[in-house]
Model the fold of this input.
Amino acid sequence: MVIKTQRDFNKIIQLAVLTVLTMGIGFRFKRQFYFILSSAFLRGSMAVCFTTAMVSGAMWNRIRKPLPFAVSRQGVPEYISPSLQQQYGFEQSIVFGVYIWAVVSLVIVPLLAPTISGTQSGKNNNNASMAKRAFVIMSMLSFIVAYSVCLKLFRQKLPGYPFKLLL
Done:
């Protein structure tokens, strides 16, 4: 038994045109792409953004195409789905924002803390060390609050979630 398949030549032509355009744009802007590939900070930032987007449910939303939000019986919009088997579109954006907030509050400490100089008067280095300590403490507090918001979202999704930090 032979099964005859019919090829969709429109999709093949679209794929070929898209490939040629991508190669042409890549060749035209290869110096800019080389800058992105040679910069460890940009590569790391893109990897963190891609990973947090996928962990927060972007691919699930892309495949399932859920509603952005639902309206409860009382008429109040629900942005977080009460079920573990589904999520709303805005829920992914909220979780992505909280994850990025937590990651940025941790990553900026080793990047920006060494560059802080609190010596406006030029007298001593005590102001710089105090400014660095304050920056690190504020960053860690920001991370703790972001982690608390993340746990709050988990508890809202699963009411029996056992962990709680600030909220």
